[in-house]
Design goal:
about 500 residues; Jelly Rolls; 3 domains; 5-stranded mixed β-barrel; globular
């Protein structure tokens, strides 16, 4: 019996898909594949790997490597999948993919069962889409067979165009193994247009989609040889890790200061590109399955369901005399007249209009938002929280109005604010409110007042979602004016 552990890398921020993708809610947690599926890219990545399960292949706990701030986004979406055992390895900061995979390998060896105590890691980014599921499953089965023999397997994407945005894998086409693999000759950086065209004409070149299959021991041994500094630093952070159990998943946190000191490097640069010609055999399985990494809005248009005019739409859209455009509406009616080859994306607090061919340059807008320290870079108007969400519906000088929803059985932290008072009005469900030394139970149309500086907490004791309208007033209304005394989610 071969045991594999899915390793889902969730560290990306997806800046080229702003304003839908933001650092507080990146693209892997969005529904973007355009195939009618209501699953997010993250959920699809997990289910794709689980499709390889068989009488010969057992799948162990899914390892999610993600940012500490995104842990409850991942957990909520895991709950929607149901019956998936998962462990979340939480990075205090982004150190690229090599340390992320090293965390997964250290966990795998520490909890090794099956496959002679050395499980096979199936590593994939969380933000890709695949159109042909059976073709992916077949390629992955071949890759598992290669890894079971001790080699490193990489999935090489069949190129459909002379793409300059991807690195390439060059293989020795004459050496094809029993698992349908080719020997990797070398890796090449992202080419210019002329070089990319030459690659396709010559043949034997494939896109590098960042999907690897290998034993945990093989990764750690290769890292020790090629980048012992990364291995040593990651091991030190791992030795002082902390664990807690949410009930649905296990959270594992490496030592914060030690992890932040790990050199930042990708899997490719640290190890994979050094393997051809070394004593770490690396082999490629071709993947021709409609792969796309959705790296920009133009890619989302390409994979989307196009109408007879070539338009891809989502939400409340009205178009006339418009062609080959992507139009996405999140919160209101969006109409377009006489446009062609455009990207139009509307959210509650931002609108993007871009020429499709320049959609990669959306990252420049994000750069400007960061330079101006604007909140639209990080958060949507509606913000997910582990207990539910809040939507900032209005704001002016010395006041802010929020719509807040709390999940059944959930509660906010016991907290206070130095600079603001709050009025709460229950509009749906039942609220249990701690207000100083009093505990109130309020139902629809009832309200209470939280004075500035008063310790308070909002909880939902019921079995249906609780919704309230919160009116804040005061001299400062920032989200950082919160002093937490107790918190179910480890934020106090």
């Amino acid at each position: 019996m071969t045991q594999i552990l899915p390793v889902i890398l969730c560290g990306g921020s997806g800046t080229r898909l702003w304003p839908l993708s933001r650092s507080g809610f990146p693209k892997q947690y969005l529904v973007l594949s355009g195939d009618g599926s209501q699953q997010t890219l993250f959920q699809q990545a997990i289910e794709r790997i689980h499709s390889v399960a068989s009488a010969q292949v057992k799948i162990g706990s899914t390892l999610i490597v993600t940012n500490e701030e995104h842990r409850f986004l991942a957990l909520d979406q895991l709950r929607e999948l149901k019956n998936f055992e998962a462990t979340l390895l939480l990075e205090p900061s982004g150190r690229n993919t090599a340390p992320a995979l090293t965390l997964a390998a250290l966990y795998a060896q520490e909890h090794a069962v099956g496959t002679n105590g050395d499980p096979i890691l199936v590593v994939t980014p969380a933000d890709q889409t695949i159109k042909n599921g059976p073709a992916f499953t077949k390629a992955l089965q071949q890759a598992v067979g290669i890894a079971n023999d001790g080699a490193i397997a990489i999935l090489g994407i069949t190129p459909s165009a002379p793409e300059t945005g991807y690195g390439y894998i060059k293989v020795q086409n004459t050496q094809v193994g029993s698992n349908g693999e080719s020997i990797v000759e070398r890796f090449v950086e992202k080419p210019d247009a002329a070089t990319a065209k030459k690659y396709l004409e010559e043949g034997g070149y494939f896109w590098n989609g960042g999907m690897f299959v290998l034993k945990a021991s093989v990764w750690l041994a290769a890292l020790k040889e090629f980048r012992p500094d990364i291995l040593d630093a990651t091991q030190k952070a791992w030795q002082v890790k902390q664990k807690d159990d949410s009930g649905d998943a296990v959270f594992v946190r490496p030592g914060k200061e030690l992890f932040n000191a790990i050199p930042s490097e990708s899997i490719d640069y640290a190890v994979i590109e050094k393997c051809p010609g070394s004593h770490y055999p690396i082999k490629m399985v071709e993947l021709d399955a409609g792969w796309n990494d959705l790296g920009a809005w133009d890619a989302v248009w390409q994979v989307g369901k196009q109408d007879e005019e070539g338009n891809v739409t989502s939400g409340d859209i009205l178009l006339t005399n418009s062609k080959n455009s992507l139009v996405h509406a999140s919160s209101r009616l969006v109409s377009a007249v006489g446009v062609e080859n455009l990207i139009i994306v509307e959210t509650a607090d931002a609108v993007l209009v871009a020429d499709r061919k320049n959609s990669q340059d959306v990252k420049n807008i994000v750069g400007q938002l960061e330079a101006q320290q604007r909140e639209e870079k990080n958060l949507h108007r509606k913000v997910s929280r582990p207990w539910g969400w809040y939507d900032s519906v209005d704001e002016g000088e010395r006041f802010k109005v929020k719509r807040i929803q709390v999940k059944p059985g959930a509660s906010l932290s016991l907290q206070m604010h130095h600079h603001r008072a709050e009025h709460w009005i229950v509009v749906k469900g039942t609220a249990e409110i701690t207000n100083g030394d009093k505990v109130l139970l309020l139902t629809e149309n009832q309200s209470t007042y939280i004075p500035q500086g008063q310790t308070h907490r909002l909880a939902n004791p019921g079995k249906t979602p609780l919704e309230i309208i919160e009116v804040q007033s005061g001299s400062y209304l920032g989200e950082d004016d919160i002093v937490r005394f107790e918190d179910t989610y480890g934020r106090s």
